[in-house]
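Posting this for the archive.
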Amino acid sequence: MEWDSEVERISGSNGEEDNAKWKRPPSSYGSMKSDSEEMDESEEETKEEREEPAAVPPDPPAKEGTRVQLIRSESPETIYTMTTMHTKPPEAHVLETRPNAPGGLPEDDEDEDDDDDLITNSPEPPEFIEPDYSMHTDETGQPGRLHPENDMPHIFKSMQSVLSGLSVEEFHHFKVTFHQWEPKITLTQAMDEDVLNFVDKAMEVVGRDQALLLTLRCLQFCKNHVNAEELQNLCKRVLCRHSLRTYLIRKHELIREGVVKAGCHNCLQNVYVEPEISTSGCGGVDPSHELRHPPPSPFPLPSADTFVGVNNLFRLQKDGGTAVRTVVTTGLPGSGMSVSVAKFSLDWAQERTNRDLQFVIKLSFRKLWSVRTRKMLDSEKVSIMDLIQYLYPQCKDMPYLEEEGCKFLIIMDSFDCYRAPLDFENAPVIKGNHTKAHPDHLIVNIIRGNVLCGAQVWILGRRAAVSQIPSNLIDAFTEIQGFSDEMKEAFFSQRTERPELNQQIVTYLKRLPALVSLARHPFVCWMVFTVFKRAFQFRDFGEHRPRLTPFHINLMIVQMNRRLQFYYGQSQNQLDWSAEDKNLLLQMGKLALKMLEGNTTVFSEDEVKQYGLIPSEVAVLSGMCTELPAAASDGRRQFCFLNVAFQEFLAALYVFTVFRTGSKYVVDSGIGPVPNVFKNLPKSAEGLLQCALTQTLNSPLGQYDIFLRFLCGLLNADCHNRHLCGFLFPHSIPKVNGLDKAEQLLRKTIQTAPQERLENLKECLREMTQEDL
């Protein structure tokens, strides 16, 4: 039959015939000329000897830029290899099991006891060897290219081979269905009897992956289930990759900021500005201060030559020139770690960068913690393949992660959300992706490199959380530094189509240096844009300088609410600050005031415990502090607040809260010495301000001046009533009396203040009244 001969020509095993067949003339995606056309040509040449040839127009010249030849070796080997090695300490037990049906979820009757598999010391991580992609670059200039089975020639050949197996009637029915579902393919193009022409045109019109998916759906719709299954098996790697790409695009294409509202979102690609990411971890804290010189912090910002792009993190190399396997990224709260992960994932899913990564799989620690605590799986022990298939059902029966040459990435973000301690010293060594173990042990072995040993691993979290990972398991430590001044302006310009509004916001922001420093954090930068965009809709807005206190109040409220949502599972509509939450905030303010009196910006773990606080609550969960690098702190665990101004704000908040809720001055509680004359003052806003003024004017310039500015801002009724009531204070709390007298006291002090204090005192009055002077 004609159909049988066509199949033999397409899928025959003769090597010379295959090579001759696949060396097609150049076109946009492959050959536009089939074997049947070549037969017709040979028949025409025979006829030429017998009769006068008809005039035939010459073939159009082939395009030179897309010379794709579908030539594949008969070996299924890929063009790269990778070796891995499992290591373990002497006498260490190794868990190695592989069920007969890999990929299944844990059985309920799992009774094996692996307690004997605990070891007393942690193994050395295996050497990670990157596949050789140095000879290839993608269109962005990055080294690497698609895996051959993910690339167009393999998909083209697979589709052509399967469609050639259809009968004439089946192929006709298939093309009619394809045209109905994809109108971009015209009826004339769809009715082309040549298989290669049809496949070429389908890929050119709808794209590589979409042509494959549409072909599969049409085959299934036309009841050609055998052919559909054959095509699915030939392109299974492509389909797994496409499922992951589709999931990541759907998850990260839109970004929702602030309080999530229906319809309120932006396209991440349109508004994203990449922050500075440094390979020199200096703590990420901006040491600048508006009044103090020199800067009070010994941890300067890193230099520009240490910066690396988020999409180039896994192009970094270790000292020996080998590729990095495990990259840890940290940053201050609000520095944009989650958004950077979203942009990396979106760029990979849309094949802009890192195309050599076959798969990018997100194993968020928040999801891992939910699986562990809520027992979503039927057993406390689970294999990593079970876990991946549970989180990504489309990756079921995916054996590629175990191949020696498979290059893929595991993203493990929100490390601080995994509340259980990880024992890197005594966790058992797990050898095999199908070995069932406790989730804690799985995580440890992923980081060690014993599970998913061919993967590159990207871990993100706050420094105090990721510091528990042994340094010998980390190949590169990076830190998000935030926005430079140019990045802030780019951030504003991308969010509005009105250049005049962008210029108004930038000019207005620069009038307050302390807010410029705080806006280095991308989240604060978004707050600034959101507030000022609304405010500039009002007439005459912008005549007065910006106020500093409301921004710090809102940042503090947001971080406390995020703590309750992310770490304690409260919903967005049911956020309620308990007595313990308020006490945490007040004790942190008390610590900040003590540091202010001692003229220091760094506190130790012992000082945290002195105030009855848990170091992890302060340095990780609060979102208002960070741990400093061990190298900068002589190996001891030391911490600091987001910046010096935020420390001064919390100190002022503590002083004001004690005054408002306890009707007393902090000086009466023994925090610091004060002349006895002030102890006899009536407990009023005027007396509170008098104590603060005396303390500020009798101290070196810059020590208490910004603290005084925040305290004056908190005395503003709009701040302590509208912003703080319902969170730190109940709505039924009495109003603060004597605010008019406090304002008069401040105005009198300005008239007699030293010249070097005059400008800051005027700023204090602006914070209290927001009136131009």
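The radius of gyration is 33 Å. The first helix runs from residue 2 to 11.
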